[in-house]
């Protein structure tokens, strides 16, 4: 078929028996293609990675290949090794504020960014879709990636992570709760991280005398999935839930990561109580972000001390209000609804 600007596009769905039959002789078929060739659900036929390397190196090759599919550490490793120097990785996330509009932030926060969840006619329909996604992910997707952990066990672990969302990782606590070893619990966390449903936010270290937290913080990437695992289906339920602050923090972190696009994100925390929710760098300068659910945030002693200790160029406080305002020297409040206008590099 023809794509935009009359560009030829060929699509193979590797979950379709018909398309798998079309690729019974993959090197012959793929070598004959021109234009854009899309291979969806590549995890179903990982052996095609080696075929693509051969085809891509052919001088007669006139095609560009887009590989889509579920995240698999083994598959990604295979792609990296087989197609080294020939491949670019693009991580695809759900909807963000730049796509749905700032006025819809509450719906995006409650339902998450998966299109069918966000666009559902009612909250009940959205919740039903997310429940179906969780079940399919655990019962089908993970086994397809070679992970043989029982679905009930992984769901229990995932639910426990939802309760620990935004906290510093402590494998011993979770291991005791599930009756498993620390090593096993850590492997479960790495599986969900590799499947792009969990973010491990790494700590930043400074050469200071204070003792600093060295374990990562753990967040569920999609706020809608977190709310499903916690049985939250309405905004009123979310606002009354003890995890509302942690949920807001994780939601804002994901919006910041997707819209502002810092190369790396860290958090910083000391055992004496100083903490910065996000640390990032731009043009060689160090910046901080605090995330507050309060609609009228104020400057805290921890904010002032953190700016001084870390020698931050500036500290922003992201909050659910409408207008930005200066809070103190090197400290400004910035509303979530203006995330697309975030003034990186323009604050003195």
Please provide a written account of the structure.
By secondary structure, the chain is of the alpha/beta class. The protein has 2 domains: 4-82, P-loop containing nucleotide triphosphate hydrolases (Rossmann fold); 97-341, no CATH class. The protein contains 15 helices and 12 strands. A hairpin with a 2-residue loop joins strand 8 and strand 9 (285-291). Helix 10 crosses helix 11. The longest helix has 22 residues, at 123-144. It is globular, with a radius of gyration of 23 Å. The model has no long low-confidence stretch (mean pLDDT 90).
> How would a textbook summarize the main sheet?
9 strands, mixed
Mean pLDDT: 90
Runs in which pLDDT lies below 50 for 5 or more consecutive residues are: none
Q: Count up the domains.
A: 2
Shape field: globular
Question: Which range does the strand content fall in?
Answer: 15-25%
Q: What's the number of extended β-strand segments?
A: 12
Q: Main traits of this protein?
A:
348 residues, alpha/beta, Rossmann fold, 2 domains, nine-stranded mixed β-sheet, three-stranded parallel β-sheet, 12 strands
Topology:
Blueprint: E1 9-13, H1 17-22, H2 26-31, E2 34-40, H3 48-57, E3 62-67, H4 73-82, H5 97-100, H6 105-111, H7 115-118, H8 123-144, H9 151-163, E4 167-168, H10 171-178, H11 182-194, E5 198-203, E6 217-220, H12 223-229, H13 235-240, H14 244-260, E7 266-269, E8 275-282, E9 285-291, H15 301-310, E10 314-319, E11 325-328, E12 331-335
Parallel strand pairs: 1-2, 2-3, 5-7, 9-10, 10-12
Antiparallel strand pairs: 4-6, 5-6, 7-8, 8-9, 11-12
Helix pairs in contact: 6-12, 8-9, 8-12, 10-11
